[in-house]
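Q:
Got a chain?
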Amino acid sequence: MSKIGSKILFLGLHVCFQGVLSTVRPTTSGVKNRVSP
């Protein structure tokens, strides 16, 4: 049971991390383009 729970928790964190990266990457690239056109 603990193994399944840890696996689900890991998957949840991974999905959340991917979502954060997908939301942060465009903004950082946009800022870089603005700073150095």
Observations:
- The mean pLDDT is 81.
- Helices lie at 2-35.
- The chain is about 90% helix and 0% strand.
